[in-house]
């Protein structure tokens, strides 16, 4: 970062309601939080979170896959739009597309994502359903750095959520999302304030910023 006393510049990618983004917006009212959202980007023009961001005075934009001839062009366009805002951190907050090579090349080690299970257990699109089907008594959520795989990046933080006997996929997911929002907000703030290092698959907070 060019100015270590300034808040970290955070670009948030969303596809839907933006509840996690809203939690970070609320957290940044504390001047000591350490990060500030400088842009919100969606792959969907109808994402409800765009209106929330705009109301908060945050610049928004849409990079929709349908507007590009192929996935490779979209990947490049997304990376360029993110880069335009000079982020220190990129947060995927309910962003429903995989991040391509251009973004990984530009922002590798600085892209944060979440998953509604305790990785490496139950990766993929149906982590909550799979945990229930697997008979898990405890599941939870994971905050991790993004790599080229699907839910395979180095784990930054995790929180556990008990599975109740009468849980459905919906009820369990709602409880996980509540915990997840708090975990993401706390973790991003710590990364911004304290820095982090990555050694193999181990992420340590409280060290040199982004020394991946």
Describe the protein's architecture and organization.
There is one protein chain. This protein has 212 residues and is α/β, with parallel strands linked by helices. It is built from six helices and nine strands; from the N terminus they run βαβαβαβαβαββαββ. The strands form two sheets. Strands 3-2-1-4-5-6-7 form a seven-stranded mixed beta sheet. β8 (196-199) and β9 form a beta hairpin. α1 (19-27) runs parallel beside α6 and α3 packs parallel to α4 (101-107). The mean pLDDT is 95.
Shape: globular
Q: What is the rounded Rg?
A: 17 Å
Please state roughly what percent of the residues sit in beta strands, choosing from under 5%, 5-15%, 15-25%, 25-35%, 35-45% or over 45%.
Answer: 15-25%
Structural class: alpha/beta
Query: How is the biggest beta sheet arranged?
Result: 7 strands, mixed
How many alpha or pi helices? 6
Task: Specify the helix fraction band.
Answer: 25-40%
Are there runs of 5+ residues with pLDDT below 50, and where?
none
Number of extended strands: 9
User: Strand order of the main beta sheet, please?
Assistant: 3-2-1-4-5-6-7
| Mean model confidence by pLDDT | 95
- Give the terminus-to-terminus CA distance: 14 Å
Topology as a string of helices (H) and strands (E): EHEHEHEHEHEEHEE
Search tags:
212 residues, seven-stranded mixed beta sheet, alpha/beta, globular, two-stranded antiparallel sheet
Give the gist of this structure.
The protein is 33% helix and 24% strand.
């Amino acid at each position: 970062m060019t100015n270590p006393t300034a808040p970290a510049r955070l670009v948030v990618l969303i596809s839907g309601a933006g509840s996690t983004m809203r939690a970070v917006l609320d957290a940044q009212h504390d001047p000591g939080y350490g990060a500030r959202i400088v842009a919100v980007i969606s792959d969907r023009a109808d994402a409800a979170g765009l209106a929330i961001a705009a109301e908060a005075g945050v610049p928004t934009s849409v990079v929709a896959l349908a507007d590009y001839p192929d996935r490779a062009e979209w990947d490049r366009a997304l990376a360029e739009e993110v880069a335009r805002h000079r982020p220190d951190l990129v947060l995927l907050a309910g962003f429903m597309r995989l991040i391509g090579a251009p973004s990984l090349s530009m922002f590798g080690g600085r892209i944060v994502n979440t998953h509604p299970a305790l990785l490496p257990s139950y990766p993929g699109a149906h982590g909550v359903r799979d945990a229930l089907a697997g008979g898990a008594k405890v599941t939870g959520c994971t905050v991790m750095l993004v790599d080229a795989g699907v839910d395979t990046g180095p784990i930054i933080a995790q929180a556990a959520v008990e599975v109740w006997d009468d849980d459905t996929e919906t009820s369990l997911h709602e409880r996980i999302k509540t915990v997840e929002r708090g975990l993401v907000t706390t973790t991003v703030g710590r990364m911004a304030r304290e820095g982090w290092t990555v050694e193999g698959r181990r992420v340590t907070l409280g060290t040199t910023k982004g020394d991946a």
